[in-house]
Amino acid sequence: MACCEASVNSDQQDWGWSQERGERTLLLPSSSTQQPRGAGKQGRTPAYAAVFIVVNAALGAGLLNFPYAFYVAGGVVAGIVLQMCLLLFIIAGLVILAYCSQVSGKATYQEVVRAVCGQMVGTICDILIAVYTFGTCIAFLIIIGDQLDKILGAVLHTHEGDAAVYGHWYSNRKFTISVISILVILPLSIPKEIGFQKYASTLSVLGTWYVTVIVIVKYVWPDQGIDTGHIPTSPSSWMMVLNAVPTICFGFQCHVSSIPVFHSMERSSMRRWSWVVTAAVLVCLFVYTGTGVCGFLTFGSSVNVDILLSYPSTDISVAVARASIILCVLTSYPILHFCGRAVIEGLWLRYKGEALEVDRYRERRRRILQTVTWFVLTLILGLFIPDIGKVISVIGGLAACFILVFPGLCLIKAKLCEIQQFNSASWWLLVLFGIFMVCLGAFIFGHSTMSSIYQIEHK
Hints:
This protein is mainly alpha-helical. It has helices spanning 47-58, 66-73, 76-104, 109-117, 119-155, 173-189, 197-220, 238-242, 245-252, 258-264, 270-299, 316-352, 360-384, 388-416, 425-458.
């Protein structure tokens, strides 16, 4: 999951580095004034900056789950091989989306899918983006609770496994999550404008990189008393390997926010974009693999679903990592909420057949109602779902749809529009590749969803 898995700003200038741009960025562009992208507008973001933005969109709280994903996959070799196999489709999906965006002239993920695949598929895409961002917000609240428990345990000087930390009303998990959410997250989620997102994004990237450094350092110089369980070297079955796929998809999912980045680039072309996404994915691969391998080898079978929960509460450097992750999550929740709210608002206006700013008073009232409803529902679910793994297994399957299913459908539809070239081998190869992407994504989504339902029912 990245923390910034979806895009709010659809104007390419919102992603550029222009000094003329102010902080007042609207949540949605006006549909009446939106012009086709690529028609006379030149981006200002250099290629190296585009790499950083894509990395920023991919890295996030999903980093905490990679050591456990390596354990589930059956060891270091299986985890790395699984990542390398998925990287081919991750990069291919990013390139396909840019190509379809260039052809259709649209500058957001959902609009590209709607333009290329039709109204019905576009509506399904909108709904899945809303569900995905909703689930990610729930995961963020669970992370806040997990890390606060450890920090409070250190402050109150409780031993590992000591329930005394829960004996005080002010240290109760439900109380701490509720207070920090109401005081910080809700006020940041209500405004219509999101100009603060670039600062939040920087904090998010720095926080995730710090976690990676800590995990690697703790593996090289382990603390005394670390309980290293059994370290498997091979998966017990290939079906078990599939259980690690949702976490990897959740971690590398930056496709929803990739199209605005493509349109913001200087001299944007498919060749330059291919180099950008390849470099960005390799950076993410280094960070995720470093965290996954070192965290897994440090704890083995005793590794927690959230790697930071495996370390003792008294470790100062890990406590700083926990505080960094909390800060990342607090600033990332509003951004993900903006993404989901934008999609919900677009669906509502399309259903009603109204313009975006037909009535500012009604828009403000509707925005506050949507925000409060979203916040209350995610808070309730975050308080009563104790395991972040359950949430990731569901939204990781949805991430596979954004990485594989929708890009595959776009590729198929785009090539079918070039039916006059059906005799060429490349045409058939691309169509078959698109079909394979759709089938693989649908299988991953179905498997992860059914596995999550099975685990919930049996626990």
